[in-house]
Design goal:
heterotetramer, A mainly alpha, B mainly alpha, C alpha+beta, D mainly alpha, B: mainly alpha, 0% strand, globular, D: mainly alpha, binds heme-A, binds dinuclear copper ion, binds copper (II) ion
């Protein structure tokens, strides 16, 4: 449980995070049509995953911790999924 | 402070100072703090019900004016839901028993537990403050844009009260989950846990994952009123249905926060008084989890006629049907537990059986509501009112009272008077049905809810309902009286008056501060009752009750 | 006046769906009755038969879990609920989808009254006159908070929202006077936001329509006046095709939007296109139309939309792609 | 400093206590996910409904400041992670310094945020009665299209309502996030004081680690807020 992560790992992860930041800003400069939002979200999710796995030590944690970490996000998806499904249906006049 | 483990000491008499209560981290003392608080809130909510039931005796608004009536039912709903029923069983019985059932010395975070109580009281005072400052008239559902823009009452205070109380609920749930995972005694495997623990675990999942959503939603309403934010304002293009989605994302699962713990209580009581093993332990255990999880998928059944899309309505309808199945499994298993048992009808058992019957009726009428075409007709009528009072009052309040009676000897070390107990259980059952059964009929006839005046033809049924409510009110006051009486005059209970299984019964009554002398080791599954064991002594006659453990 | 109807346990059936809702209700009553009675009887019977202090040589009960039994009482309720669901869903779909040939009335709800417009121009407050035997469609909107239009005898109810149209329909089957309630709590006088629905024979209804005060104009005429008054016609006229889309016949067509989405030009879309044209810009046009948010009341909007819908279609437009 | 000294009476050992704290913190974070989640759900719905207005609102924010703040916050996450590591490896001076650095970075973030808020105030972009897109001396090139002074026929007037909704989300989301930052900085301050007393060691660093989890979570929220609020086209 008391896993000590190499400093190097932290630096590498950090470098990746900065890279992704640059990427997301760059992507936003271009008009990618409908792809804009998914790309921005994908990058954000990638960043979040890096942080959760390394900075927050989930990669080294017990399965239970992983379950709890995933649980919150999964529940968020339930909420988003159903609300947006209804919004989409109403938008289309169903 | 005296040595807590000296002989004759228990968590109650270890220290009498007022301060020792307000700064206690003992889960049992915190449970008592909660018990006093929620009882007071119940009386406040009940008093409001008495007043508006009086008003509803006649079709004209002659007792109170419209504004007052609207404030009364809002007060009733808010207080009963957020300050009585949601905390009632988890924070009183759950707090008291969960660590003991696990064989632990306390909850994982005792100071957090005390903080929860303070947070809860802060929320409660805010809510009471909103009443004193003139009341709130939005209904407990706070629908926008009425609550955010149009109402000119103290919505902010009340919403903040519920918001703050929400955090107390979250922290309690968090504490329970962590405790269940990390504090089980040696040998206490998951499938040796009493169902009470499973139910509270399932409840806690909802508390932790649902409550934050209502918190943010109410916060947004407050921001909209206070600072002029515009998230729900249709004038700016806001969607009134968004609020309803967010509100029910929590508030539907919250109804299972209100019923799951009561199911846990009933599952402890029924095997004990049937002297029989729980029928289908694994099914009952997993049914709790299934209810908790599925409950997050059905909230849209409150929006069938709100302008939600037809297709979303259908999905939510079918999912609502699914959530009924685990509930059915529980009801059947409880009933089957009586089979070839040795049934005695002491007060806790009367309440538990009352729970099963009334929950069944309330739950089955929930299916009417989940059936789309019927809900179109009965939505926002008294049919809804009857449905949820059958579950919440007929079910949960019965379960709560049953639990209080069952564990009263453990909590206080005293026995309540059995005859009075049975009498009041009977009165409550009769009064309850007289109050709420007519409301089903009223609802199908089309009487809308939240009205202080109604058309004349509804009067007869309303009078019946009000009459029932007064019987019910008396029924609730009797236990209040004799339970307090028993604190002083009740016979001393001894560690295990019901000869029940479960770790909480293996220690003295009232328990010591740290619950157990030595950490217990568990070797058996729960509920190993034996129906052949029919010589169970009646507690009243029990001569060998240990003297001197009570105060 | 209502007292003469006296005490009853079941509401009147006065619409085409009412008997069908009641049939479903009866089915559920039977299922519920069965389970409630079964469980009550089981509990009482066992509480007596196996009561304490009636020593019997009872062998230990069966093994703790009887799989077949458990599965049976999972599957049986599941099957029953699915019947409820399908039955209810089919009926609901009908209740929510108005037939094509319905008479359309406009309903505006506001704290605390109902205002109803008939196509021929007559309007009424807290009363609704409808013919029996003809489907009637209500297009509803609220000026302020949420209300809910509820006629128990017809078994129909629908929320009336601010900022968006909702619809509801029914076909009265029995002449008479029925209650009209506001079912969604909407503030102080919510209880009194009620009135009556008068279902009349078609002949009576026609006569009633005639009874309108002399100077009433039809919704379309009123709408067309507003259309001029608010200078909509400066952009939207017959050969405006280049700058702004002609409005004739667009109702209920699929409209391609500038950002690639498609919408159906229903009432809500038309309304939004007027109060907030930027939200959904029609493909091929510049978003130059001003927003009329706050300048038109819901009543005026209703009338303008009635007018737009009454414009005869003009050939191939709108349903491209 | 022995392990047992930190074990509260109701725990059996340090291991159990650590497991409880860790689980508790993660559950708390799950709660937080849904707390912010309500806002994200509303945001998603309105962005889908009002893409143009959301873009117009977003253009009133300064992406450069947003990007700078993102970088600052990501860096603070690194220093926080390193602070935990320093505590784990008995590096007391490192712990103190890294915690202090994290506090500084957090404060920089809040400073920038405060500056942005002030600017919005200046431009009348705070939701409420005085909200207005056209008054104020904004910097956005798009303002020309918002000029309502022209004749009806030419005016391309954007509907202010949904823009105000966007800014309501902006303030609610960033405000709530900033509140979390303030709490985080408070916690870090307490840790800093304790670390200077030498409270943490490889035997006992749970508070540092738990605060770290919280801090990283707040960082993650921002990682989503940044593109969703500042980078809409
Ligand atoms: C503790 C509280 C509680 C509980 C447990 C429930 C349980 C259920 N509720 Fe209820 N409900 C409320 C409290 C509760 N409800 C409240 C407060 C409201 C109104 C809020 C407001 O608007 O103010 C409401 C409103 C409400 C509505 C919205 C109505 C409307 O406003 O139009 C609906 C619709 O589907 C619904 C459905 C259900 C269902 C399907 C269940 C199911 O979980 C029930 C499952 C139980 C059983 C089915 C009984 C046991 C089973 C058997 C005996 C076996 C036989 C079974 C079968 C044949 C399946 N409820
Ligand atoms: C969760 C718990 C809960 C509980 C326990 C109760 C308990 C009761 N409820 Fe309530 N009720 C709700 C939750 C609850 N209710 C909710 C959520 C609503 C919806 C609100 C809304 O629409 O927003 C509602 C709405 C509601 C209505 C509909 C109001 C309306 O829509 O206009 C009615 C009507 O009869 C009613 C009745 C009762 C009665 C008679 C009791 C009885 O069981 C109460 C019995 C208790 C007592 C009688 C107290 C005993 C104490 C005394 C007698 C002392 C009295 C002292 C003085 C008078 C000084 N309730
Ligand atoms: Cu309008 Cu209630
Ligand atoms: Cu529900």
């Amino acid at each position: 449980m008391h896993h000590v992560v190499e400093k190097k790992t932290y630096y590498i992860v950090s470098a990746w995070l900065m890279l992704l930041l640059v990427l997301t800003v760059a992507a936003a400069q271009r008009d990618l049509g409908a792809a804009n939002v998914p790309i921005a979200l994908a990058i954000a999710i990638a960043k979040a995953i890096l942080i959760v796995l390394f900075f927050m030590h989930v990669r080294y944690g017990s399965p239970l911790v992983r379950l709890f970490a995933a649980g919150g996000f999964f529940w968020l998806l339930i909420m988003l999924g159903f609300i947006l499904a209804d919004v989409q249906a109403r938008f289309s006049g169903w | 402070m005296t040595n807590p483990s000296a002989p004759g000491r228990n968590y109650l008499n270890v220290d009498y100072r007022f301060r020792s209560w307000l700064w206690t981290t003992d889960h049992k003392r915190i449970a008592i703090l909660y018990m006093i608080s929620v009882t007071l809130f119940f009386l406040v909510g009940g008093a409001a019900a008495v007043l508006f039931r009086l008003e509803l005796m006649t079709p004209r608004g002659d007792l109170v004016i419209a504004e007052t009536f609207n404030k009364l039912f809002t007060l009733h709903g808010v207080v009963m839901v957020f300050f009585f029923l949601i905390p009632a069983i988890p924070t009183v019985l759950g707090n008291f028993l969960l660590p003991m059932m696990l064989g632990a010395r306390d909850l994982a975070f005792p100071r957090l537990n005390l903080a929860s109580w303070y947070i809860f009281m802060t929320g409660g005072l805010l809510a009471i403050g909103s009443i004193i400052a003139g009341g709130v008239d939005t209904g407990w559902t706070f629908y926008t844009p009425y609550s955010s823009t149009y109402s000119n009452t103290n919505v902010m205070l009340a919403a903040l009260g519920a918001f703050v109380a929400g955090f107390s609920s979250i922290l309690t749930g968090l504490n329970f989950i962590v405790t269940t995972h990390t504090m089980r005694a040696p040998g206490m495997t998951w499938f040796r846990l009493p169902i009470f623990v499973w139910s509270h675990y399932a409840t806690s999942i909802i508390m932790v994952l649902g409550t934050p959503v209502i918190a943010i939603t109410l916060l947004l309403v407050a921001l909209e009123r206070g600072l002029g934010f515009g998230i729900f304002d249709p004038k700016l293009g806001g969607d009134p249905i968004l609020f309803q989605h967010l509100f029910w994302f929590y508030s539907h699962p919250a109804v299972y926060i209100m019923v799951l713990p009561a199911m846990g209580v009933v599952t402890e009581i029924v095997p004990c008084f049937a002297r029989n093993r729980l029928f289908g332990y694994t099914f009952v255990a997993f049914a709790s989890l299934a209810i908790a999880v599925i409950s997050f998928f059905v909230w849209g059944h409150h929006l069938f006629v709100s302008g939600q899309s037809i297709y979303a309505g259908m999905i939510f309808s079918v999912l609502s049907m699914l959530v009924a199945v685990p509930s059915a499994v529980k009801v059947f298993n409880w009933t089957a537990t009586l089979y070839r048992g040795s049934v005695s009808l002491d007060t806790p058992m009367l309440y538990a059986l009352g729970f099963i019957g009334l929950f069944t009726l309330g739950g089955l009428t929930g299916l009417f509501l989940a059936t789309l075409a019927i809900d179109v007709h009965v939505h926002d009528t008294y049919f809804i009112i009857a449905h949820f009072h059958y579950i919440m009052v007929g079910g949960t309040v019965m379960g709560y009272l049953g639990g209080i009676h069952f564990w009263w000897p453990k909590i206080t070390g005293r026995i309540y008077p059995e005859w009075w107990g049975r009498l009041s259980a009977g009165i409550i059952f009769i009064g309850f049905n007289l109050t709420f059964f007519p409301q089903f009929v009223l609802g199908y006839l089309g009487m809308p809810r939240r009205v202080h005046e109604y058309v004349d033809e509804f009067q007869v049924l309303n009078v019946m309902s009000s009459a029932g409510a007064s019987i019910l009110g008396v029924g609730y006051l009797i236990p209040l009286a004799y339970l307090i009486w028993s604190l002083r005059y009740g016979p001393v209970a001894g560690p295990n008056p019901w000869r029940a299984t479960g770790l909480e019964w293996q220690t003295q009554s009232p328990p010591t501060t740290f619950n157990f002398e030595t950490t217990p080791v568990v070797t058996e599954p729960p509920y190993h009752y034996d129906p052949g064991d029919f010589q169970m002594e009646r507690i009243e006659q029990s001569p060998g009750a240990v003297q001197g453990t009570a105060r | 006046m209502y007292m003469e109807e006296g005490f009853r346990l079941f509401p009147e059936q006065a619409s085409s769906v009412a008997p069908r809702v009641d049939a479903l209700y009866t089915f559920l009553l039977c299922v519920s009755g069965f389970f409630t009675v079964a469980i009550f009887v089981a509990i009482v019977y066992m509480a007596i038969k196996y009561r304490h202090g009636r020593p019997k040589d009872r062998p230990h009960p069966e093994p703790e879990q009887l799989w077949m039994l458990e599965i049976a009482w999972i599957v049986m309720p599941l099957a029953l609920t699915m019947v409820m669901f399908f039955w209810g869903a089919v009926l609901y779909f009908e209740i929510r989808t108005p037939p094509e040939d319905a008479i359309e009335l406009q309903v505006v709800g506001k704290q605390w009254m109902w205002k109803i417009y008939h196509p021929q121009g007559r309007s009424e407050i807290n009363e609704l006159h409808v013919p029996v035997g003809r489907p009637v469609r209500l297009r509803m909107i609220s000026e302020d908070v949420i209300h809910s239009f509820y006629v128990p005898a017809f078994r129909v109810k629908m929320d009336v929202l601010p900022g968006r149209y909702t619809t509801m329909w029914f076909e009265a089957t029995k002449p008479g006077e029925y209650h009209l309630f506001c079912a969604e709590y909407c503030g102080t006088e919510h209880a009194n936001m009620s009135g009556s629905v008068y279902a009349m024979t078609p002949a009576e209804y026609a006569e009633w329509l005639q009874g309108a005060p002399a100077e009433t104009e039809t919704a379309q005429t009123a709408g067309s006046k507003l259309f001029t008054q608010f200078r909509c016609h400066t952009c939207h006229h017959d050969d405006s095709e280049l700058r702004s889309p002609p409005l004739a016949g667009i109702f209920d067509k699929s409209i391609p939007l500038a950002d690639g989405r498609m919408v159906r030009a229903d009432d809500s879309y038309l309304r939004e296109s007027i109060v907030n044209p930027m939200a959904k810009v029609t493909a091929g046009f510049q978003p130059v139309m001003p927003a009329y948010q706050g300048q038109l009341t819901e009543e005026q909007l209703l009338l303008i939309i009635e007018y737009i819908k009454s414009l005869p279609p003009r050939g191939a437009r709108g349903d491209a792609s | 400093m022995t392990t047992e000294a930190h074990v509260a009476h109701h725990f059996d050992d340090a291991e159990q206590q650590y497991a409880a704290a860790n689980l508790g913190m993660w559950l708390f974070l799950a709660t937080e996910v849904l707390f912010f989640g309500g806002l994200f759900a509303g945001y998603a719905q309105y962005r889908y409904w009002y893409p143009t207005e959301f873009a117009a609102g977003s253009r009133r924010l300064d992406p450069t400041l947003g990007a700078i703040n993102t970088a600052v916050l990501l860096t603070s996450s690194l220093t926080m992670a390193l602070a935990v590591r320093a505590a784990q490896t008995n590096d007391r001076r490192g712990t103190v310094r890294l915690l202090a650095l994290t506090i500084v970075l957090g404060s920089v973030f809040l400073g920038v945020k405060a500056y942005e808020y002030y600017h919005k105030y200046d431009e009348n972009l705070i939701p409420g009665r005085s909200f207005s897109l056209s008054t104020g001396h904004g910097d956005s090139g798009d303002l020309t299209t918002l000029d309502s002074s022209r004749g009806v026929a030419e005016a391309r007037e954007i509907d202010e309502g949904p823009v105000q909704i966007f800014l309501s989300f902006y303030f609610a989301m960033t405000g709530l996030h900033a509140a979390h930052m303030v709490i985080g900085i408070g916690l870090l301050g307490a840790l800093l004081a304790a670390a200077r007393r030498g409270a943490f060691s490889s035997d006992y660093f749970t508070p540092v680690e738990m605060t770290g989890l919280y801090w990283h979570f707040v960082d993650i929220v921002w990682v989503f807020l940044f593109p969703l609020l500042y980078l809409i086209r």
